[in-house]
Amino acid sequence: MNLNTLRQDIPAGLVVFLVALPLCLGIAQASGLPPFAGLLTGVIGGLLVTSLSPSRFAVSGPAAGLVTIVVASIQTLGSFSAFLTALILAGVLQCLFGLLRAGRFISLVPGSVIKGMLAAIGILLIMQQIPVALGATGDAELVSLVKGDFLFSLSAMIVAGIGLAILWLWTTPMVKSVKVLSWIPGPLIAVLFGCMATLFGERLFPDLPRIALPTFDSLSALAAELETPDWLAWQNPSVWMVAVTLALVASLETLLSQEALKKLRPQHPAPSPNKEMFAQGVGNLTAGFLGAMPITAVIVRSSVNVSACAQTKLSILIHGVLLLICGLWFSDLLNAIPLASLAAVLLYTGYKLATPRLFIEQFRTGTQQYIPFLATIGGILVFGMLAGIGIGIATQILCSIYKSHRNALQLTRYDDHYVLRFQQNLTFMHNPKLQGLLAEIPENSTVIVDNDNAEYMDPDIKAVLRDFGENAGERGIRLSQWPVAMK
Question: Which domain holds residue 461?
């Protein structure tokens, strides 16, 4: 660390803090948890995980991708304290993943499944936040809009709508071309507008629901606010299922963020995915003990850190300290933030995860990619995150087997000569395809077999070839380079 890195790390840390603040509050609110839990998660990710992480630029904290898992898990387990027990177990599992060097297995997850998972998370996030943007104050769901038992709030709709307009405006070339504005995060402007609406526009925007952060006048007050785990909940099998789901999805999102970060800012040597998983495990273990939310490395905040020209981990540590200061001493100021503004930020985040362009790109890649992509989305929406990922992987395996099966054998005609090519190793599953191709060969022709790419042929395949070869003479078919010996 030197003066030059300080000059870049301090502004970068401030920018990351401004981006992370509304996201920490909004993700906690969307998860049905106190906003302070979101700030606490950002502090743990910014200070503890950063200290252990091998990456200089990866920012960890609460992730929008885990909101739906948190909500569903708390509903399944019946309490936040039981969920914290599952989070502790998930942290232990992540530490074990790191020690067992399981990070290398990230390459086995198909890209179509990963993109489907992110798109499904975006869709679920949008479905969850639409009622909030329309004025819901409780746990209203999207289905209540269809039933008609929903009370709309014009004030919330206006604030959320203007917030979305600001977020869109901040992506346009007009704003990006202004250097000063490009340094100010769009989510911060959207939240600041919401604050102005609550503080100075009470007549125009009456009864806007706001976040509710507690104030702390002593350490005992802070300790009283922290939720404690339900230590007896480990006996519940559902707790273990939630723990496995959290560990797998949080690890997957972290490692995906690392892969994306490599393209934005390569590090030499590249950060170890196993050390990163161990660091995330320690973070989630701590979050479970202190009553916080699940932690992952988040690509949005990490990319902001890189674009702000951060040089060392100091920028992330600064962002963590600023989140801690806000949570402890500026809660009154943060309580002016309306829920509709946070809903706008999360709606926009969900849109970026499930952008129509992603669907178009997947359809253009062909059936082998978009069928598993859609299967993953459908599986997650209907059955949940872990089951949906499993359905996506299974669908991708079936599609790959089918595609491989279709291209394993090829028959080409040259006048009265037929070349039968074996493109890969053949098993009994290729029997129908082989028999069909051999049936196309007419009498009085020459058959040449090219089997250089087939190092293994199943006995059933050899039996089909042998039967054809034994009857070839009767049909006037001449065989060349036949891969099996005749009796």
Answer: 408-480
